[in-house]
Amino acid sequence: MEGYPELASVMGRYFEMGISRRFGMLNSLNLLYLQAELTELESELQDIADKDAKSDIPFRSDFAQDWVFLSKPIGNGDEKQWEKVLQIRAKLKEYSKRRPAGPFVHGVVADWSIDECVFQQVKLSKLDCPDEN
Predict the structure, then answer these.
(1) Quick one: DSSP state of residue 3?
(2) Do residues 53 and 64 make contact, with C-beta atoms less than 8 angstroms apart?
(3) What global pTM score does this model have?
(4) Suppose 114 and one of 31, 34, 51, 119 were both cysteines; which one would form an S-S bond, judging by CB atoms 3.0 to 4.6 Å apart?
């Protein structure tokens, strides 16, 4: 055995020999990009919702008050707002996976849901830097 398999074998037997990068910059960059994407999607949804609210097309102006009309479009462009909601939902799932947490996470009461991406970044930032030996 040699290379990665040999290194993995040593790391598996001797936890203190483990070597793992935090990828702090990449995790932060990913978090910022996800936030930027969600901000853009939020703006697009607001634009669509504003146009729908002012529409003369039956039911479209009711989307803000009636989820059934919004979620079951009948055509003629009615689906734009609902499609944007679904697009946002998918991006939020990537950004904000709800996860059960213990009573304390890094000294913070964690009885609420924590954004997985944010939680991961906090967890990684708390790791000790490797010593020079």
Answers:
(1) S
(2) yes
(3) 0.65
(4) 119
